[in-house]
Amino acid sequence: MKSSEIYGATCVISPASGKYPLLITLLLPVVAHATQQQTTQADQNVMEVNAQDYKETGNGPVYGYVAHQSSAGTKTDTPLIKTPQAISVVTRDQMSIQNVQSVAQALRYTSGIASEQRGANTDSLEYLYGRGFLIDELWNGLYTPGPSGGFGYNVTSFDPYMFERIEVLHGPASVLYGQGSPGGVVNMVSKLPQKNQLNEAGVQTGSYGRAQGFVDVGGALNNDQTVLYRIAADGFNTSSQTDFVKERRFSIAPSLAWQINDDTHFTLYGNYQTDPDAGYYNSVPINGNIKVPRSLNPGDPSFDSFRKTQGAIGEELTHRFNDVWSVKQSYRFLRNSQKLQYVGNDGFNADGKTLNRTAYLNYGDVDAHTLDNQALATFTTGAVSHKATFGVDYQHIRFSHWFYSAAAPSLSISNPQYGQTIPGPNFMYATSTEATLEQLGAYGQDQIDVGNWSFLLGMREDWTNNSTHSFKTQETQYQSARAFTWRTGAVYQFANGIAPYISYSQSFQPQLGTDYEGKAFTPSKGEQYEAGVKFQPKHSNSFITLSLFQINKTDVQTSDPEHSGFSVLTGEVRSRGVEAEAHASLTDHLQLIGSYTYTDITNTNSNTAQGKAPVGIPRNTGSLWADYTQYSGALAGWQFGAGVRYIGGSYGDTNNTFKTSSATLVDTALRYDLGQLSSSLEGWMASLNASNLFDRHYIASCTGQSYCYWGAGRMVLAGIKYQW
C-alpha cells in the first residue's frame, strides 16, 4: 500500500502567475537538489510504507485518519484511550484529502468545535469556539496570542499546510497550560524533520482566480542521519466571494533536528508568514425581507486594507538521564503585527436600503516569549506504574493597540458607490493602549496505571501580573492574581477495547479592569465534570469517543445594576452537552469520520441576559466524511471522498430575539494517481476538491441584527503535485 502522506506534508512551488517570484527563486534549488538525489529505480520513486513500519507518537505523523496517541492532554506521549478527557486529532492525511486552507477548515469535521463563526473570514482571523466558549490556540504545546486573550486583531493565524496534526483538548486545560478558556485548547503540531521524508511539490488553481503553490522537502544533512532538515512553504493569490476583496499570503516553516547522542535531541524550528492582503473583515446587517447580496462589499475598496505579518523561532531540547528521569525544555519567541483600515457596516438607515458606516484604523503588534521546562519520571512501585511530570513555565507578552474611528458616508446596497471621500488623518482619537502580561506557573502531574485502571491527578499554581497603559489618559493600571487549579480522572479498559472514563478539571482566566470602587477584577474560573466512553476495537483501526460534560464558568463580568458603565463579577455561564466522534479505517480502501455535538449553553446569572444563550453557538451540529481508494482494476489509482456537514442555527443577539437558519453543506474530493497511466508519471497526482458543493447561501453567525457574517460559498480547487 502506498503511503498517503504519513511522513510529510506537501511541497509546493509558487504559482506560475509570478505573484511570488521570490518563493520560486528560494525553493527551486532545494527541490532540484532533492530531485537529483532520488533513485532512478522505478520501484523506489514512490516510498512504500506499511502500517506496521512506523511507531506512532503523541506529536508525530499518523498513518491515515486514526490517531491513537497524543501529548495534548497530558504533556506526555499517552494513548488516547488512557486519557480521561475527550481529545480529537486531525491528521495530515485528513487535511490533505480535504485540501483545507485554514485551521478553521481543518476542524470542520471535529466534534465540539464551532470553527467558522466568522464565515468566509477564517484565513486571517480565527475565532474558534469549544463547548460554547471562545478557546485558545497552542503551537507545539506553547500558548499563542488569541482572541480569548483580548488581543483584538493582533492574533496569530497560521497556514495549516505547516502542520503535521491539529489536536483539540476539550474542556479546561489550565493545569497543563496556565490561563485559558474553560472550553479547551487547539494544539497545532509543526511538520518537523523525518528520516523517511516523503517530499512533495505542487500547484493548484480554483474559484475566484486562485493561484497557489506549495512545497515540502527534507532529509538528512549528514551520512549517519543525525542532522535532519525540513522546509515547508505555501503561497497563494486569490480574489474572494466579496467584491473587490483579495487575499495574498506567503508562509514558510524551516526546521532542523539534531540527534546529539542516544539520549539527547535538539530541534530548532521557525515560521514566517506575511499576508499583504489578509482578506475580508466586515459584516452585513439583517433586516426582514431586505436581501443583502453575499458579494456586496459594505466597505470601500479605495480605502480598505488589511496587512498582517508574523514570525517566530522556537526550540525543543530533550535529554534522558536514565530509565527513570528525562527532561524537556521548550522555548519560542513570536512577533505579530497588523494594520487594518476599513469602512465598517453599522446597520441600515431608516430607509432600510442604505447602510450607515464608520471608518476605522486599527494597528498594533504583539511580542510573546514562552518557556516550558519539565521533568518526567517513569517508574514502578510494586504493581503500580507511574509517569510523573513536574514543570515550571513562564510567558511574557507585550501588546500594543492603536484604534481610531470617524463617521463615514453611507452606502446604497442596490447601487453602491465606491471611491467616496473617507475621513483620513483627522480621525477622532478613540483608544490606544499598551499592555504587558506575565505568567509564572508551577505544575505537577501523575499518571498511574494499576491493572486495567488508569488514573490521572494534576495540580498547578499560577502567578500573573498585568499592566495596561492608556495613551489617551496617560494612566497605567496594574493587576496581580494568583490561581490554584487541579484535575483528576480515571479510565477502566475492558479487554474488548471499551474504556469508560470520568474526570474533573479547572481553568482560570485573568480579566483586565476594575469595578466601581476601583478594585481590580479577579480571574474568571471554570470547572468541568465529564464522563464518557472511549472505544478502540482490538481488530480494527478505529477510535470512537462519546462524552457528556458540564462546564460552569463563574466570576464573569456583568453590568453593575447600581453604577452605569461599570461591571461586577457576579456573572455565571453554564454549558452542558454531548459529543460523539468516530475515526475509522474500515478496510484498506475505506475511511470514515463522523461527529455529533449537542451544546446547551446559558447565562445562568447575568444582570442583562439572564437565562439567555450567548450569540453564535449552535445547539446541534453534525458531520460525516468518507473516502474510498481503489488499488486495482479499472478504477485503480482513484480516490473518492465526500462529506456532509450540518450546522444548526444560533442566536444572533444577547436578548435571543432572533436566530440564524441552519445549513447543510456538502464537500467532495477526487484524486488520481497518474502513475497508473504510465511509469514515467510515477509520483504525480491530480486532485479536485469542492467545499459547499451546492453553494448554499447561509449566515454563519451574528452578534446583532446589524452585524452578521456570510458563510463561505462554494470553493473549487484543482491541482497537481509530485511526490518523491
Task: Please explain how this structure is put together.
Helix content is 4%, strand content 53%. The protein has 724 residues and is mostly beta strands. β17 and β18 form a beta hairpin. The longest helix is centred in the first third of the chain and has 17 residues, at 21-37. The relative contact order is 0.13.
Termini, distance in Å?
A: 16 Å
Total helical elements = 4
Quantity of strands, as a count: 34
CATH architecture, please? Beta Barrel
The name CATH uses for the topology is Maltoporin, Chain A
Proportion of beta-strand residues: over 45%
Class in CATH?
A: Mainly Beta
Average pLDDT, all residues? 90
Tell me the overall shape.
Answer: globular
Q: What's the name of the CATH homologous superfamily?
A: TonB-dependent receptor, beta-barrel domain
Can you give the helix content as a percent range? Answer: under 10%
Give the count of structural domains. Answer: 1
Which structural class fits the helix and strand makeup?
mainly beta
Estimated radius of gyration: 25 Å
Residue runs with pLDDT of under 50 for 5 or more positions: 1-52
Biggest sheet statistics: 22 strands, antiparallel, barrel
Membrane topology: Multi-pass membrane protein
Subcellular location: Cell outer membrane
GO molecular function, one term: siderophore uptake transmembrane transporter activity
Keywords: Cell outer membrane, Ion transport, Iron, Iron transport, Membrane, Receptor, Signal, TonB box, Transmembrane, Transmembrane beta strand, Transport
